[in-house]
Amino acid sequence: MTSNPFSAEHRCALRHTPQVVALAGGVGGAKLAAGLQAVLPPGALTVVVNTGDDFEHWGLTICPDLDTVIYNLAGVNNPELGWGRADESFAVLKTVGLLGGEDWFRLGDKDLAVHLRRSEWLRQGSSLTEVTDRLRRALGVPSTVLPMSDLPVRTLVHTDEGDLPFQHYFVGRRCEPCVLDVSFVGAAEATLTDAVYTALAQADVVVFCPSNPYLSLDPILSVGEMRSLLPSLRAPKIAVAPIVGGQALKGPAAKMMREMGYPVSPVTIAAHFDGLLDGFVLDKIDAAAAAHVRMPALVADTLMHDLPSKAQLAATVLEFAATLWPVLASRPAP
Amino acid sequence: MTSNPFSAEHRCALRHTPQVVALAGGVGGAKLAAGLQAVLPPGALTVVVNTGDDFEHWGLTICPDLDTVIYNLAGVNNPELGWGRADESFAVLKTVGLLGGEDWFRLGDKDLAVHLRRSEWLRQGSSLTEVTDRLRRALGVPSTVLPMSDLPVRTLVHTDEGDLPFQHYFVGRRCEPCVLDVSFVGAAEATLTDAVYTALAQADVVVFCPSNPYLSLDPILSVGEMRSLLPSLRAPKIAVAPIVGGQALKGPAAKMMREMGYPVSPVTIAAHFDGLLDGFVLDKIDAAAAAHVRMPALVADTLMHDLPSKAQLAATVLEFAATLWPVLASRPAP
User: Fold this and answer.
1) Residue B80: pLDDT band by 50, 70, 90 thresholds?
2) How many domains, in total, are found in chain B?
3) Which one, of B98, B106, B116, lies nearest residue A76 by Cα?
4) How far is it, in rounded angstroms, from Cα A87 to Cα A103?
């Protein structure tokens, strides 16, 4: 395991335990979040998670990205599938199907238990932030996990087959329709929670995890004043490219980039987040692209196939962020 | 299998397929209902089921007696436990327990699928009658299954430890507290559904199944005008005693009778339904008690250990009812 990447000098300058906020969507984001949790002291990590994929199913509120992050941080995720839990069974799903119910969304039995708990609590009046905190504690996760908002934001994918709610595009149509654009219904009315605002205000580093920029990070950036808040923070904001060697590590990011007319390159990602980032991490296979990124860039091994490699990338990102502190400290206070 | 108990003569007198309505609670009622279904033509049986045991759990609406009846009629019940489904698993229950949720009520995975479907439909505005009909059809049940009302009636057990909602008395406290009385919250406001009213009005026979009189049949009798409606029907009303040889076949009926100061005898059951019945069936072990029942009584083998014995008892009850028709036909029309 990698040692704590914050040197004594850095820690002294901070005068407190460093606080890291990670913005994450599904699998890629959850992997780096697990790496960050592994190299940080308990409680130092807060993960702000996309809820644009959330939907109602079987009368329950399903939050796929929140669950993927919590399951990864708890070490109970299914690493083969990339979603759901390890050692999962599907007895309820099978019977619901036999009863004529919808079985296109593969809800496992253990996973369902989480949705039942969450839905009951939400119906009783708890906020999604409160419910998520109870669930991560119940699963023994030492990091804070926050939904990007307590108000509903729903990702709508505009395709050549018409507008599709996220899960119908992603699961129902297996990302096959050609994407023209993406929008976030409810984002204008949604507000950042106090918990997200406080975490960002207290952050020493903000990490844009290697999640799909259009489907996972853009929804987070669309909430309330998030886009205007980020540049005002003192913390360095570092993104890790989710595109490696011209491919997305997981999911439809590369396909979407082609469909929307962008080069499938880390440079496109860096440009997409222009004005929001202080540093950019890209894979060694894309080293040549680093020169085209208009900000401090670090070339690293970004592939995360096990916990040591996740922790190694996390440490690399935090060390890179630490090098940016002196520069940022000279910024005028917002 | 027993042949159709309605003779050609009887069928001719009826000029239509005989319609049988059974009033039922849980296990005992479900067994006789399965027997009736086995000897009647498809669609001839309607079971009106107690919903006083219904409750909210995990944010879902659970209807234990409706499910017990449907599972028995579908042949998917668990005959050993007396509740729930055969070949059941408990993956969700286990995980809900690990997440700090309530796991005292043993909800199986297949059973849960039914509760999920029902709760979603109810939330969408369907009536319990509509939802129950969809579920029994999905499980291939040819008989009509009706909740006693679409409005909530909740059985409250008054005990020496205070008032307990039914499931807390029955499952949570395993029927241990001493019962003083039973009441049915909401019964005064509840109304019979059109479906129940029509089924009763068209019935050729009404069977009081061998269910707990205080916890399963009294709630049905408490709904709206049920008590005044029954005596006005032309159909003979026959009860089968749930007490055999001084014991309840299942559940706390005998214990409750002792606690409330009644002799544990079929005669107590017959007296309890005085004014509502035209005939009474009691077990051969209680043959001596037949003389003390103040109505036509039939001594029969009432133990139902498999489908042939359920069908045999059902046929016996229907044959007994048929012998009462000429008498009833001479009643003045209501």
Assistant:
1) confident
2) 1
3) B98
4) 19
Give the ranges where A99-193 is alpha helix by DSSP (H): 109-123, 128-138, 166-167
B contacts of A100 (beta carbons < 8 Å): 134, 138
* Nearest CA-CA distance, residue B47 and chain A, Å: 21
Q: Establish if A36 belongs to a structural domain.
A: yes
Q: Is residue A77 part of a domain?
A: no
Cα–Cα distance list, B66 to A283, B26, B72, B111, B142 (Å): 60, 8, 10, 12, 15
Choose the weakest-confidence range: A1-10, A158-167, B128-137, B240-249: A1-10
- Give first-to-last CA distance, chain A, whole Å: 37
| Closest Cβ–Cβ partner in B59, B60, B96 for A113 | B96
Q: Which of A55, A60, A67, A112 has the most B C-beta neighbours within 10 Å, making it the best mutation to test the interface with B?
A: A112
Domain of B124 in residue numbering reads as: 8-328
CA–CA separation, B231 and B56 (whole Å): 34
Distance CA A263, CA A158 (A): 20
Question: Tokens 């009033």 map to which residue?
Answer: B23
What is the CATH classification number for the domain harbouring A278? 3.40.50.10680
Is B3 within the bounds of a domain?
no
Q: What is the pLDDT along chain A (334 residues), one digit of tens a residue?
A: 444 556 555 554 555 678 999 999 989 999 999 999 999 999 999 999 999 999 999 999 999 999 999 999 999 999 888 889 999 999 999 999 999 999 988 999 999 999 999 999 999 999 999 999 999 999 999 999 999 999 999 999 999 999 999 988 998 889 999 999 999 999 989 999 999 999 999 999 999 999 999 999 999 999 999 999 999 998 999 999 999 999 987 889 999 999 999 999 999 999 999 999 999 999 999 999 999 999 999 999 999 999 999 999 999 999 999 998 765 555 554 4
Give the list of residues 6+ apart from residue B261 with CB closer than 8 angstroms, or none: none
Chain B interface disruption, residue of A99, A126, A141, most B CBs within 10 A: A99
**B123–A92 C-beta distance less than 8 A:** no
Q: How many whole angstroms separate alpha carbon A133 and alpha carbon A117? A: 12
Tokens of A117: 């708990």
For residue B167, give how far its alpha carbon lies from the nearest alpha carbon of chain A (Å).
Answer: 19
**Rounded CA separation A88/A95 (Å):** 16
Residues of B with CB under 8 A from a CB of A: 58-60, 89, 91-92, 95-96, 98-101, 109-110, 112-114, 116-117, 119-120, 123, 134-135, 138-139
A135–B113 C-beta distance less than 8 A: no
Partners of B123 on chain A (C-beta within 8 Å) are 59
Q: What is the mean pLDDT of chain A?
A: 92
Which chain A residues are closer than 8 Å to B113 by Cβ? 92, 95-96, 98-99, 101
Q: What was the pLDDT predicted at B1?
A: 42
Kindly state whether residue B333 falls inside one of the protein's structural domains. Answer: no
Q: What is the dihedral of CA A251, A253, A254, A256, to 10 degrees?
A: 120
d(CA A262, CA A254) in angstroms, rounded, equals 9
pTM over cut 0.90? no
Cβ-Cβ contacts under 8 Å, B117 against chain A: 58, 96, 99, 101
To the nearest whole Å, the CA of B180 is away from the closest chain A CA by: 34
